[in-house]
């Protein structure tokens, strides 16, 4: 089964996407399955994981309802307030849906870079682990030391780094991203999504050569058994079409990786991680 492990749907009129403004250009409109499904069919993607784009439980419920109607959806990575006293009850409620796979706090947007180490947050992460739920890690390189420490404190938590932790591809910078990601990758329960690459490069003029060094390092750190393809559609449209994103990764995976390794990256690992 080929699986896109990271894409989004949203409706502007919902009003809870604080980051989604007219200045976002092509992204400032509704995106739904009717538009994505033809792209999935062309790339032979059978299922997707839809990931939260708003820090609200309301959006999570909206996405779970969408799963009931859309066959291509295999699961939702939603949002909960990890410092809310009622988080345990809320997780149990959301987990009644077989489509609820885990949560993603929008760490990159928070003022406190060390938010993930707050005591109440760590307790909530332990609750995720107890329930077999996962954590998507949306960060930039400066957050990685805190993420590594969190993983030491909650070693039973299954986690995945989104967008390879957003290195400065446009500037050609490897550090401190590489050192930080190496510490995170040393935890065997942590996966990484090969997603969001083109939007961290020069949007209008990116090349394979710009992105290849980052993919090479991530493949070295995580290996074929802990990597997942994610389109980051529709955000990727700022720099590339769905097909271009998929073809880019096909080209940049190591030549030594055969059919089995590539099948794992393009679906098998996501199925295992998200229990599909």
TrEMBL record:
InterPro entries: Amidohydro-rel, Metal_Hydrolase, Metallo-dep_Lactonases. Transmembrane segments: none annotated. Pfam families: Amidohydro_2. Residues 3-276 form the Amidohydrolase-related domain. Belongs to the metallo-dependent hydrolases superfamily. This is Amidohydrolase family protein.
């Amino acid at each position: 089964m080929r699986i896109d492990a990271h894409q989004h749907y949203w409706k502007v009129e919902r009003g809870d996407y604080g980051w989604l403004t007219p200045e976002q250009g092509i992204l400032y409109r509704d995106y739904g399955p009717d538009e994505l499904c033809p792209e999935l069919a062309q790339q032979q993607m059978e299922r997707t994981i839809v990931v939260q784009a708003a820090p609200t439980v309301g959006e999570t419920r909206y996405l779970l309802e969408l799963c009931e109607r859309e066959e291509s959806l295999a699961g939702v990575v939603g949002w909960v307030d990890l410092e809310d006293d009622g988080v345990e009850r809320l997780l149990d409620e959301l987990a009644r849906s077989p489509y609820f796979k885990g949560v993603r706090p929008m760490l990159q947007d928070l003022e406190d870079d060390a938010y993930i180490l707050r005591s109440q947050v760590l307790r909530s992460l332990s609750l995720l682990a107890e329930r077999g739920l996962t954590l998507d890690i949306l960060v930039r390189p400066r957050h990685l030391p805190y993420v590594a420490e969190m993983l030491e404190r909650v070693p039973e938590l299954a986690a995945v780094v989104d967008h390879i932790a957003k290195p400065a591809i446009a500037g050609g910078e490897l550090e401190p991203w590489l050192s930080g990601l190496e510490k995170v990758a040393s935890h065997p329960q942590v996966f990484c999504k090969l997603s969001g690459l083109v939007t961290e490069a020069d949007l209008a003029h990116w090349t394979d050569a710009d992105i290849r060094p980052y993919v090479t390092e991530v493949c070295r750190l995580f290996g074929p058994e802990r990597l997942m393809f994610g389109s980051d559609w529709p955000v990727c449209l700022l720099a590339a079409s769905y097909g271009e994103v998929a073809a880019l990764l096909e080209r940049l995976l190591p030549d030594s990786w055969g059919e089995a390794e590539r099948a794992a990256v393009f679906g098998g690992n996501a199925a295992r991680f998200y229990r599909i």
